[in-house]
Amino acid sequence: MSFVPLQGLARLHVADPPRDSEIEFSGPQRTIRLPMRGAIPVLTRALRADDAHASVTLLSAATMLAMKLVAAGRVQRSAAGHAWRVGPMSPDDDDRVRAVAGARTYDGLDADEAEAIVRALLDAVADTMTRQGAGVAAGVPTRSTDATADHRSLAERLAARVADDDLPSEVFLSLRVEAPEEQLVGGRVSVVPQVHEADVATHVTDAEQLWASSGGHGFSVRARANAAVALRRAAQAWPVLDRLLRRPVPDRLVLDADELTDLLDDGLAALAAIGVDVFWPRGLRQELVPRARVEVKRRDGQGAPLMTGVFGPDALFEFDWRLALAGDPLSDEEMTALAEANGPVIRLRDNWVVIDPETARRARLAAGRDRRGRRELKPVEALQAVLTGSIASGIGQGDSATVEVHAGATLEKVRDRIVDAAQVSPLEAPPGLQATLRDYQRHGLTWLAELTGAGLGACLADDMGLGKTLMLIALHLHRRDRRLATGPTLVVCPASLLGNWEAEVRRFAPGVPTRRFHGSQRDLGSLVSTGSTTGEFVFTTYGTMRADHETLAQVRWDLVVADEAQHVKNANSSTARNLRLIPSQCRVALTGTPVENNLTELWAILDWATPGLLGSRNAFRKVWAAPIESGVDPAVARRFAQLVEPFLLRRRKTDPGIAPELPPKTETDQVVGLTQEQAVLYESLVRESMRRIEEADETTRRGLVLALLTGLKQICNHPAHYLRQAHGRIAGRSEKIDLLDELLGTILAEGGAVLLFTQYVAMARLLERHLDAAGIPSLFLHGGTPVRQREEMVATFQGGGVPVFLLSLKAGGTGLNLTRADHVIHVDRWWNPAVEDQATDRAYRIGQTRPVQVHRLVTEGTIEQKIGELLERKRSLADAVLGSGEVALTELSDDELRDLVTLRTPHG
Amino acid sequence: MDSLPADPISGDPMVFPRVGRVRGAAARSTTWWGRAWVRSFEETVVDAADLAVARTLARSGRLGAVMVLSGMSSVVVDRGGPTSMMAQLRVSQLDARAWDVFVRELVREAGFTAALESGELPVDLVEHADQAGVELLPGPADLETACECDAWAQPCVHALALLYQLAWHLDADPYALLLLRGRTREQLAAEPPPPVLLDDAAARAAEILRLAREAPAGHGLADSAVAAYDEEVSRLV
């Protein structure tokens, strides 16, 4: 772009040598000072501009005259011998000079002054046009302008060469970029080749010097040929340099915008590969670093969102791709200027800057029509960006280069909260919690509170027995205490665990209303109408939820908990789909299985807990699962871990912080209910037996009572057990079996080992059949098992060969080393629980080498539950039944007995 | 057999070590000037069969080191017995005026020297010199051979073998050709810096004048015609 003003005064500043002269052009807006090289083109055309100032036309006419003289060969050395000038001048030439001067005088300039200017300019043009220095070197006479033969004799030349032998000949090349203002304006720069002494890089001279004179630069004569060879190699690496070799003296090269782009794109690398450095003027080449800013975008919400909070699906985030100069992001105007630049040279913040063409291309894309540099992000993208600190910029064709992310202030706060959720100073147990939380449980509670508070879901995947239920109950109470809760809490769990949940809520949070939404009489009552904040705990099963999600969806739940969340690991199942339709403020998934090992399951669970976090299933497969599983790029696995870590908390029993806090034995009563079939059997047996017992005499009575009690226990186990069905259907007829399946599922997934105790061999056989059908290997040891076989079984179990060991209680015997078990399940109970426990622990060395979880399956409302309660009430009776327990029970009165055996249905 | 008198020699000789036995046809000349050299002497041979014999001899390993001096080259040939014989070549050298013309063309482009130093004889250089009346590559008339063998016509097969081997050496180092024509590498390197090419400046000035006749008139900021003009002229300045 030419912006040299021609309307104002132009002044010639003469210098010595004349080629260094400069011309100053002034105008209304600016004044520019150009060297001869830059001024000559302007002056050759200035005569065409009709509004040019008189001083300009004077210089212009002088320039044209100078050109004519040079074209005619009228150039000679100056008197001092170091420059060129016009001459010899004929009288006609002098006339012309005076004519030019006289015709263009102006105010403040007379003819003589004008003539002086003209003559000075003629010499300046001549000196510039001849290009070569006319320098004098010591000891070597210069050639005359006409002679082409060297006047020195061969001998003289050879003599000169001997002195030169001490000077260095081996050289290497570098390039120096010069960027005078007038060139930068046109998007151009100059490149000057430099020659360095090999091994003494500080001895450097412009290549021009090796040709222009034969001394003074400190290099031998041979250095010139070596420099030419070096330049040839450089031109092979970057062909634009070839132009230099076409000149007699490779002095400098002017690059236009395209050539400069080519240098930046390819040339620099190619030259660097052969050891040619390129030096830039200070400040000219600055790095423009791309950064992306991600921030929450405020928008008025419409309709009730499924999940509120910063990361709800209605949330919007902004992505703003910018270039930063020296750490300072460019403004919109600067980005536009950058995008509109024609070449790599632009003016940015009062400085000329040469930018990398690749960066400029991306800036153009960012600022272009599509405005790809600024766009909205989905929550998943924003979360990923802010957690991993980088994002795929999407700027540029197939450009998957990740760019650094700077989170906006709001997002930064949220990110900090999420990442540090587990390290935030632990909360105190909320009021209303009847339990002491262990340290790791307080951390778990704090973590849950932080995530749910930010509107994000969580997946708590602690080992079984660490108290997930307790932590959830604490979370529920916490949200109420801090007035964060906007509705009741819904727990979705397997049917076999319903009783357990209810029991634990009643135990740890007494006073909190609970309700079961299950069975044909289920009803949500007042919860459905207005947003109730009663702080109620509602339990439902996966089956009920699947069938009746529409009813459930009518309640504005605060917290929805998916217990044993591996039940929704298949995202396509109607269970999983319907679960997603239930609205909530926040969601927590609980699971005991190591979910991080299976990425598809992990996706299903986290996608429910925090929808959109990991993207669609296909996107997830493509972006994360496939690359991680192929293992080609470990960085992907690292980034994924960074993304997922804040949302997944998993502690193991064996963790150093946890194990010491666990007692050697933890006992849990797992409460289950009766199936319809069992209830019918139970009630009819009671009715039948009580009638006969009341009518019986003393001796028969004892037998009848025993038969009754035994029968009831068998019914509680399984109808097939009581009915002596050796081949009947097992599944679905007893909740104890269902619960057993749940527990075993988790235990086996953890890689644990379990002892199953029952007092009945028939029940053990039934269990064996059931396990066999499920493909679970088991060992069964009973009274009749031969000794050698016992030893083999124990060895197999201890060696990890089989995970399930069935034992009949009476198998007894001390010295059975089954310390590998970390779980014990009492499928049914003997008469005195405390005594029985001690016996089993001793006999089987339970809890001696590792913490053990003991589960006692207790059928609600039945004799199993009542015996325990009875024993607590009547200590004397407890003492009395030491040893042969059942005998004492026969001493109960009819009423007491009836009380004991009547089925108590659970309240809804 | 009289050996040819040698002129007073200037500069060091170039000595090319003996070439051992070469198998197959890999001994063809690979460069354009090597091939031109071969063409120039093959024309002088009466009996084409001699060429085949000479080529075999060149590949046989029986030729010793080849010496090259200004205008001359020689080699010793092992004849299989106790005695050996020497074959010689004389090339007419370019005179001082011709060398001045050649050097003037040589210094017109820095790339020419660079090419020579890199083992390449630039075609453009030879053509420009040719156009200026100086033929670097010798023709048949410029070559004269002698040998200590008893062949009744020259070039004999030994001299031809020498010529073939010289073609290989020229392939590798064109300075050998320049030496045969009368100038050493050092002499060429010691040439003073190129004179101011006044012709060049005059030509450029004339071109500028021509361009100026069609110069655009505007001088606004966004005038691309003006920018293009300025750029073109500045390349000639």
Task: Produce a short descriptive summary.
The complex is a heterodimer of chains A (908) and B (237). With 908 residues, chain A is an alpha/beta fold.
Calculate Rg of chain B over CA atoms: 24 Å
Secondary-structure element order of chain B, as H and E?
A: EHHEEEHHHEHHHHH
Low-pLDDT ranges of chain B: 1-10
Average pLDDT taken over every residue of chain B: 84
How many strand units of chain A? 31
Major sheet of chain B: 5 strands, antiparallel
Task: Give the strand order, joined by hyphens, for the main sheet of chain B.
Answer: 1-2-3-4-5
Largest interface: A-B, 71 and 58 residues
> What best-fitting shape of chain B do the alpha-carbon axes yield?
elongated
Main sheet properties of chain A: 7 strands, parallel
- The outline of chain A comes out as elongated
The percent range for helix content of chain A is 40-55%
The N- to C-terminal Cα distance of chain B equals: 63 Å
Tally of separate helices of chain B = 10
Kindly describe this structure.
The complex is a heterodimer of chains A (908) and B (237). In chain A, helix 3 (91-103) crosses helix 4 and helix 11 packs across helix 12 (357-367). Chain A has a seven-stranded parallel sheet. By secondary structure, chain A is of the alpha/beta class. Chain A has 34 helices and 31 strands. Helices cover 45% and strands 13% of the residues of chain B. Chain B contains ten helices and five strands, in the order βααβββαααβααααα. In chain B, strands 1-2-3-4-5 form a five-stranded antiparallel sheet. In chain B, helix 1 (32-42) packs antiparallel against helix 6. Residues 1-10 of chain B have low confidence and may be disordered. The chains are: A alpha/beta (908), B alpha+beta (237). At the A-B interface, helix 1, helix 2, helix 4, helix 5 and helix 8 of A face helix 3, helix 4, helix 8, helix 9 and helix 10 of B.
